[in-house]
């Protein structure tokens, strides 16, 4: 996967359809257990609501996913919510749509549009982080090397995600995996920039928001 999106924060939107109130809450999550805990939190917050339908994708590949209609007709709530997350590449995220029934039945098609539309509306108004696969390097250099590495000249090539200042400077740097700057080229670049006054090693692989 080249990238995916996830919410930068927790977001909520409210829509009213035929007197029924649909409240959508969306949040990024780091695990399936975190998704379940968030669903419990929203259910408790709206304890008088008729339905708490949800869907989540708990990993960055789309393999860990679950949805629930919570008493609505089968296929009219949880699946439409999940389909919106999948179609918009919103992973490591959970969406909960709470419904306060207004007394007018919407029919299966109307329900599917209402639940899916509630998630669309929430995501449209959310700040979404665009997450790219990245390689994290750890660099140790002197202060002169740090000034050169952190120059704006290289700001589009990599991002410094952590700095530790002691007698030397330790950096954790994320390099976008899908870019012209390969891991090998990055190491060569850092050695050239610091004139060899550095220690550099590959630390791990992550997804990181290079763009918003």
Strand elements, count: 10
Strand content: 35-45%
Largest sheet: 5 strands, antiparallel
Distance linking N and C termini: 17 Å
- Low confidence ranges: none
What is the CATH-assigned architecture of the largest domain? 2-Layer Sandwich
CATH class of the largest domain: Alpha Beta
> What's the CATH topology name of the largest domain?
Ribosomal Protein S5, domain 2
What coarse outline follows from CA principal-axis ratios?
A: elongated
The fourth-level CATH homologous superfamily of the largest domain is Impact, N-terminal domain
Q: Return the structural class.
A: alpha+beta
What sequence of helices (H) and strands (E) makes up the elements?
A: EEEHEEHEHEHEEHE
Structure description:
This protein is of the alpha+beta class and 212 residues long. The protein folds into 2 domains: 4-126, Impact, N-terminal domain (Ribosomal Protein S5, domain 2, 2-Layer Sandwich); 132-211, Alpha-Beta Plaits (2-Layer Sandwich), CATH 3.30.70.240. 28% of the residues lie in helices and 39% in strands. It is built from 5 helices and 10 strands, in the order E-E-E-H-E-E-H-E-H-E-H-E-E-H-E. The chain has helices at 32-45, 78-87, 107-124, 143-149, 183-193; strands at 4-7, 11-17, 20-28, 51-57, 65-68, 93-100, 128-141, 159-165, 169-176, 198-211. The strands form 2 sheets. Strands 1, 7, 8, 9 and 10 form a 5-stranded antiparallel sheet that branches. The chain has a 5-stranded antiparallel sheet with strand order 2-3-6-4-5, sandwiched between helices. Helix 2 runs parallel beside helix 3 (107-124).
């Amino acid at each position: 996967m080249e990238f995916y999106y996830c919410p930068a924060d927790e977001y909520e939107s409210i829509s009213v359809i035929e007197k029924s109130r649909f409240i959508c809450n969306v949040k990024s999550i780091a695990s399936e257990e975190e998704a379940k805990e968030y669903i419990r939190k929203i259910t408790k917050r709206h304890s008088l609501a008729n339905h708490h339908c949800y869907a989540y994708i708990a990993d960055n590949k789309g393999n860990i996913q679950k949805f629930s209609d919570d008493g609505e007709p089968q296929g009219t709530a949880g699946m439409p919510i999940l389909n919106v997350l999948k179609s918009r590449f919103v992973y490591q995220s959970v969406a909960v749509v709470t419904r306060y029934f207004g007394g007018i039945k919407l029919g299966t098609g109307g329900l599917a549009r209402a639940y899916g539309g509630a998630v669309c509306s929430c995501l449209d108004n959310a700040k979404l982080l665009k997450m790219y696969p990245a390689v994290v390097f750890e660099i140790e250099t002197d202060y002169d090397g740090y000034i050169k590495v952190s120059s704006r000249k290289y700001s589009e090539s990599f991002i410094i995600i952590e700095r530790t200042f002691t007698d030397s400077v330790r950096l954790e740097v994320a390099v976008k995996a899908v870019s012209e700057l390969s891991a090998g080229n990055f190491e060569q670049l850092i050695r050239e920039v610091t004139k060899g006054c550095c220690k550099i090693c590959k630390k791990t692989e992550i997804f990181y928001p290079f763009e918003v």
